[in-house]
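lol ok so funny story. i was supposed to be doing the assay writeup but got distracted and ended up predicting the structure for this chain instead. priorities right. anyway since i did it might as well share w the group, maybe its usefull for someone
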Amino acid sequence: MNPIRLLTSSELCLCTCFLLVLIYRGWSQLFYDWTVSYSQLAPLGVDKQVIVINGMFPGPVLYASTNDVVNVNIHNYLTEPFLMTWNGVQMRKNSWQDGVQETNCPILPGQNWTYSFQLKDQIGSFFYFPSLLLHKAAGGYGAIHLNNLPIIPIPFPQPYKDYAVLIGDWFNADYRDLRASLENGVFLPHPDGILINGLGPNQARFEFEPSATYMLRISNVGLKTSLNFRIEDHPMLLVETEGSYLIQQYYDSLDIHVGQSYSVLVTAKNQANGKSYYMVASSRFTILEHSGIGVILYPDAAGDPVGPLPLGPGLSNYNFSIEQARSMRWDLIASAARPNPQGSYHYGTIPITRTLILENNVMVIGSKRRFTINGISFMHSDTPLKLLDYFQLNEESKYAAAAALPSSATSVVDAFYRDFFHIVFQNPLLEVQSWHIDGYNFFVVGMGWGLWDESKKAGYNIVDAVSRSTVQVYPLSWTAILMELDNLGTWNLRSQNAENGYLGQELYIRVKGVRNWLDEQSDISARDEAPIPDNVIKCGRAADL
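and the output, tada:
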């Protein structure tokens, strides 16, 4: 019989590290089967054809954890082509699954297609929504909750319960009529109201147990309206935004712009004394103020809240909003999806390889009003760029540097893997702009009034700026971001304001390795970028290839 040998300290350490790696890399295969169809609903008392998922509006919450592989089989029972995109999910090296018009052919009516993607190194609160034909104006959206792996501690006590809180403006008009108006140069009207979880005033209800702490995962899923969110007599501890943990601070209210997501902790009162409380999402920077109203219910609540709604900031108080945005800071000590602290990534020390100045505007092109980036309104081709690249089909594209005259073109920014971009969004208009970049988070290093110039760099936050995927730009102002292009693929940069994006305010960033610019697309290693899916839908010039 061989004697038992005890492990040395170095061997024990090595085994422990190996076990931790196995636990960290652990993941599950998740399968969802979603039917997308119409249903007649009246969230604000006016009957309307709404897009539902498995009969639900909003759609089901997509629950997952870091590194899980998600498979979502979507059955399209609409009368029009359909795509779903996953706002804030980075689709690491896999823009084939991004669900926007230049990466995917649509799912035709009566057909189905399965998205398959890994939630690589991500945690946080996000949402999904339909990306084609202004379908978002009819609903079709839902929440995404990405939890930490058990081995990664969260930087706050475990909440008693999570609630998805989807807030957004709502238009009683049919989405087809809104779309036709946009195509005729008539912009969206003022919204008819604000919904909370797809429901009208006093219909969304959240049950609180005394002294329990709840995580509210809040997303602005609307079309164009910035919203202020608050809960009567309940301060909110802000802890996370779009996959990044923040220095924890209490807020009485939060401005949440179109496409943005936040997670807050709310601790219930020890005794509610029979009261219930208002939850409010009110419009910001609009001529008329609209409010979505929810209800916080305690076990002994005698009924709905009474009295006035809790006050928010002044309707046009931009200074409140920009100062609140500047107050948010990245938590350098907390670990998010990976064991190492967030602050171990020193973005402020990385040399900038390229600066882009992107100015949004609205211009007349031909006889129609269109939204532009640097004078160019995006024009979709008959075949997604991703397929054109893969099959080496010729397609003329233009980088939106600064068009001499307003024009329509397929705007593409070509970049090398690991480039480090400095992007300045300049907004010369009188409305808040909201920008999103698929495939990435970026660092919001500065924002201010007026025109940006080189001197503004001196005021950048190069230590603990918030890392996120959607950022606001206030009227007559600028916002600057830093972003490492460490995710190969073709990625959509778009206005989150639905009418702007629908009428051309977007472009694509095409990121390849140095050698991939010379190689055939089909020769790209799977280690660099995911291969074309076996179930890929082909259309346009690639239909028969």
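The CA atoms of residues 100 and 258 lie 18 Å apart. The chain has a mean pLDDT of 92.
back to the writeup now i swear
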